[in-house]
Amino acid sequence: MPETLMDCQPLIADQPAIVLVCAGRGQRAGEGLPKQYRLLAGEPVVRRTLKALRAALPLAYIQPVIHPDDAELFASAAQGIDGILVPAPGGATRQASVLAGLAALEALSPALVLVHDAARPFVTTGLVNGVLTALQNGAAAVVPGVAIVDSIRRDAKGGTAPVDRSGLYRVQTPQGFTFADLLSAHRAVAGEDLSDDATVMERAGHAVAISGGDANNIKLTLAEDFVLAEKQIISALADVRTGTGFDVHRFEPGDHVWLCGIKVPFTQKLKGHSDADVGLHALTDAILMALADGDIGFHFPPTEAKWKGVSSDTFLTFARDRVLARGGMIANVGVTIICEAPKLMPWKAAMQERVAELLQIATDRVSIQATTTEKLGFTGRGEGIAAQAVATVRLP
Ligand SMILES: Nc1ccn([C@@H]2O[C@H](COP(=O)(O)OP(=O)(O)OP(=O)(O)O)[C@@H](O)[C@H]2O)c(=O)n1
Ligand SMILES: C[C@](O)(CO)[C@H](O)COP(=O)(O)O
């Protein structure tokens, strides 16, 4: 039995196995991380894909194929998901990467295998079931396809010419196969660059059946696909909730304060069990309130020694993960810091960036404001700093 990446429930070996190809560089998607590791509504694309596959087939092994440079990115994205085998190193083409994944599965020798693109996070249980049903009915190769409804034209001499669209499909993944047939078909064409596995099977003489595709099952290919994909996710998160948070810490002797994740030099520090980051505390509470999921004192009691001196980043990322665990996203947050000093204008941009980084959202979804109380009250007298925060989250 292949070694698994993480501890997993005993999965059933007679389930179809899944080869998940994640080794591409995503050049058409533009600058930044390879597209499968970029954040989509707060979660790496490949994590969304893994979760969707795990939901569709709770007992199937998943054989990832990754670029050797991406081991850490993959391990972080796959954290906590069961049944993922040790990643196989990918090749220079998609076809080479699929072959590497199939070879890694040879010892397990499943009867059926699905091959899926990491860059297709919208795979559904219905799609997977459609492919498996066709395989169980005797097909050796099945691809989900969406019938073309647009008029089609092809470049031709002197202009363009119409193409008959009847019987034409846009082909997606997961594609399903009998494992032994796909492995030998891939071995027979190794070194070529065929765009999908159905074509590999066809070259070996197998007929390819089509099951129902899903127009939402897009492959993230170009930069603009990320905008469309985020819209798809947001439209499925219709339960919009808002929470607020408020916190106060008093000053004590020291030489800096932590505010919204940034160390700000000052003539005093804030007293607290943790690092006393009043801004992140208010924000953590705002997110927990939006979820109706307790508050910071409930989850991190000041009576527990383990939270002493801890960075408040821990509290905020905990709240973020509670949103993600419910399949939601953080739509926007705002923090208002209330004090006479230190003056915060020079630090606000760094705070905005740090909060966005901790929440894994875009900076334009984070607002940091600062105000005084015109020398009135405890903040006016310079006895401490108060912060209030607001957070909007979207849940399924
Ligand atoms: N050498 C490769 C090339 C592609 N893929 C994977 O195959 C899937 C579909 O390929 P594509 O969208 O073409 O991805 P990239 O090759 O990464 O994109 P680009 O061609 O824009 O660089 C992706 O999940 C990609 O990671 C792979 O595992 N190994
Ligand atoms: C396999 C595939 O996703 C089917 O649509 C596609 O062919 C692979 O991506 P590419 O853009 O053709 O490399």
TrEMBL record:
<feature type="site" description="Transition state stabilizer">
    <location>
        <position position="273"/>
    </location>
</feature>
<dbReference type="GO" id="GO:0019288">
    <property type="term" value="P:isopentenyl diphosphate biosynthetic process, methylerythritol 4-phosphate pathway"/>
</dbReference>
<comment type="similarity">
    <text>In the N-terminal section; belongs to the IspD/TarI cytidylyltransferase family. IspD subfamily.</text>
</comment>
<feature type="binding site">
    <location>
        <position position="381"/>
    </location>
    <ligand>
        <name>4-CDP-2-C-methyl-D-erythritol 2-phosphate</name>
    </ligand>
</feature>
<dbReference type="Pfam" id="PF01128">
    <property type="entry name" value="IspD"/>
</dbReference>
<feature type="site" description="Transition state stabilizer">
    <location>
        <position position="372"/>
    </location>
</feature>
<feature type="region of interest" description="2-C-methyl-D-erythritol 2,4-cyclodiphosphate synthase">
    <location>
        <begin position="241"/>
        <end position="396"/>
    </location>
</feature>
<dbReference type="InterPro" id="IPR036571">
    <property type="entry name" value="MECDP_synthase_sf"/>
</dbReference>
<keyword id="KW-0456">Lyase</keyword>
<dbReference type="GO" id="GO:0016114">
    <property type="term" value="P:terpenoid biosynthetic process"/>
</dbReference>
<dbReference type="InterPro" id="IPR001228">
    <property type="entry name" value="IspD"/>
</dbReference>
<dbReference type="GO" id="GO:0008685">
    <property type="term" value="F:2-C-methyl-D-erythritol 2,4-cyclodiphosphate synthase activity"/>
</dbReference>
<keyword id="KW-0414">Isoprene biosynthesis</keyword>
<keyword id="KW-0511">Multifunctional enzyme</keyword>
<comment type="pathway">
    <text>Isoprenoid biosynthesis; isopentenyl diphosphate biosynthesis via DXP pathway; isopentenyl diphosphate from 1-deoxy-D-xylulose 5-phosphate: step 4/6.</text>
</comment>
<feature type="site" description="Transition state stabilizer">
    <location>
        <position position="35"/>
    </location>
</feature>
<dbReference type="InterPro" id="IPR026596">
    <property type="entry name" value="IspD/F"/>
</dbReference>
<dbReference type="InterPro" id="IPR003526">
    <property type="entry name" value="MECDP_synthase"/>
</dbReference>
<feature type="binding site">
    <location>
        <position position="281"/>
    </location>
    <ligand>
        <name>a divalent metal cation</name>
    </ligand>
</feature>
<protein>
    <recommendedName>
        <fullName>Bifunctional enzyme IspD/IspF</fullName>
        <ecNumber>2.7.7.60</ecNumber>
        <ecNumber>4.6.1.12</ecNumber>
    </recommendedName>
</protein>
<feature type="binding site">
    <location>
        <position position="249"/>
    </location>
    <ligand>
        <name>a divalent metal cation</name>
    </ligand>
</feature>
<feature type="site" description="Positions MEP for the nucleophilic attack">
    <location>
        <position position="219"/>
    </location>
</feature>
<dbReference type="Pfam" id="PF02542">
    <property type="entry name" value="YgbB"/>
</dbReference>
<feature type="binding site">
    <location>
        <position position="378"/>
    </location>
    <ligand>
        <name>4-CDP-2-C-methyl-D-erythritol 2-phosphate</name>
    </ligand>
</feature>
<keyword id="KW-0479">Metal-binding</keyword>
<comment type="similarity">
    <text>Belongs to the IspD/TarI cytidylyltransferase family. IspD subfamily.</text>
</comment>
<dbReference type="GO" id="GO:0050518">
    <property type="term" value="F:2-C-methyl-D-erythritol 4-phosphate cytidylyltransferase activity"/>
</dbReference>
<feature type="binding site">
    <location>
        <begin position="371"/>
        <end position="374"/>
    </location>
    <ligand>
        <name>4-CDP-2-C-methyl-D-erythritol 2-phosphate</name>
    </ligand>
</feature>
<dbReference type="InterPro" id="IPR034683">
    <property type="entry name" value="IspD/TarI"/>
</dbReference>
<dbReference type="InterPro" id="IPR018294">
    <property type="entry name" value="ISPD_synthase_CS"/>
</dbReference>
<feature type="binding site">
    <location>
        <position position="247"/>
    </location>
    <ligand>
        <name>a divalent metal cation</name>
    </ligand>
</feature>
<dbReference type="GO" id="GO:0046872">
    <property type="term" value="F:metal ion binding"/>
</dbReference>
<feature type="domain" description="2-C-methyl-D-erythritol 2,4-cyclodiphosphate synthase">
    <location>
        <begin position="241"/>
        <end position="393"/>
    </location>
</feature>
<feature type="site" description="Transition state stabilizer">
    <location>
        <position position="28"/>
    </location>
</feature>
<feature type="binding site">
    <location>
        <begin position="295"/>
        <end position="297"/>
    </location>
    <ligand>
        <name>4-CDP-2-C-methyl-D-erythritol 2-phosphate</name>
    </ligand>
</feature>
<dbReference type="InterPro" id="IPR029044">
    <property type="entry name" value="Nucleotide-diphossugar_trans"/>
</dbReference>
<feature type="binding site">
    <location>
        <begin position="247"/>
        <end position="249"/>
    </location>
    <ligand>
        <name>4-CDP-2-C-methyl-D-erythritol 2-phosphate</name>
    </ligand>
</feature>
<comment type="pathway">
    <text>Isoprenoid biosynthesis; isopentenyl diphosphate biosynthesis via DXP pathway; isopentenyl diphosphate from 1-deoxy-D-xylulose 5-phosphate: step 2/6.</text>
</comment>
<feature type="binding site">
    <location>
        <begin position="273"/>
        <end position="274"/>
    </location>
    <ligand>
        <name>4-CDP-2-C-methyl-D-erythritol 2-phosphate</name>
    </ligand>
</feature>
<keyword id="KW-0548">Nucleotidyltransferase</keyword>
<keyword id="KW-0808">Transferase</keyword>
<feature type="region of interest" description="2-C-methyl-D-erythritol 4-phosphate cytidylyltransferase">
    <location>
        <begin position="1"/>
        <end position="240"/>
    </location>
</feature>
